[in-house]
Specification:
- By secondary structure, this protein is of the alpha/beta class.
- It contains 8 helices and 7 strands.
- The protein has a single domain, classed as Spore Coat Polysaccharide Biosynthesis Protein SpsA, Chain A (Alpha-Beta Complex).
- Strand 1, helix 1 and strand 2 form a beta-alpha-beta unit.
- The radius of gyration is 17 Å and the shape is globular.
Length: about 240
């Protein structure tokens, strides 16, 4: 029985994956059964070969491949669909999300009395990014938080833990990974937050830039606001 599934969306991160996977094993092994799913989102480097070589010695490691890049949300969605655990945790493959922070995400969801918590969202402290990226992120988070009132100061952090069944009931759309706290809250779940560390990218380069994020973010924000306004108001109450 697998309780925890670690989902890693990855594109051209061959240099970062070995250390990341070692860190995940060190962080998760003391807490029981777990699996790791790497979702390769159309990589053109040696990422697939790196994972396949490691899978021979790590039976809890699984590889899901996208022949064509679909983006981070599509990769996360594919990973959650394939996950065997009831609790799913995500983190980025670039090494900026320390895997040592993973227990902060899944332990609150496994604690007695936590049944109403749907998601534990990491919020980065001491960010190791360029000043332009930090300022753009701060501005975007302010707009999003003001518009959605989701109580989350850093929705772009890749470190998140959530209940698999609740996630799969959310409406899927591209870039939804940036709005998970608001979407879980929309469905009546409690949202918990934890501060997590942040590191500089270990190798390679980012697949995103500020202009891309700003343009799609404005459209997505309007879509999420619409989804919240159109949420289902009634709940079924079966009686014998």
């Amino acid at each position: 029985m697998v309780t925890i599934s670690i989902v890693i969306p990855a594109k051209n991160e061959a240099e970062n994956l070995p250390d990341l996977l070692d860190g995940i094993d060190a962080a998760c092994a003391p807490h029981g059964s777990y699996e790791v799913l790497v979702i390769d989102d159309g990589s053109t480097d040696t990422s697939v070969a790196v994972i396949e070589a490691r899978m021979r010695a790590h039976p809890n490691l699984r590889l899901i491949r996208h022949d064509v890049s679909g983006g981070q949300s599509a990769a996360v969605h594919s990973g959650v669909l394939a996950a065997r655990g009831s609790i799913v945790c995500t983190l980025d493959a670039d090494g900026q999300n320390p895997p040592s922070e993973l227990p902060k995400l899944f332990l609150p969801l496994l604690a007695p009395g936590s049944e109403r918590i749907g998601i534990v969202a990491g919020q980065r402290v001491g960010r190791q990014d360029t000043m332009s990226k930090k300022l753009a992120s701060r501005f975007a988070n302010w707009i999003r938080s003001t518009a959605l009132n989701d109580g989350t100061r850093d929705t772009g952090c890749g470190l998140k833990g959530f209940r698999r069944d609740a996630f799969l009931r959310l409406p899927f759309f591209n870039h939804m990974h940036r709005y998970l706290p608001a979407l879980f809250k929309r469905d009546g779940w409690e949202v918990a937050h934890v501060d997590v560390a942040h590191e500089a990218r270990h190798a390679g380069r980012s697949n995103y830039n500020n202009l891309q994020r700003g343009f799609v973010g404005a459209i997505d924000l309007l879509g999420v606001m619409w989804l919240i306004r159109r949420k289902k108001k009634s709940r079924p109450n079966e009686r014998a």
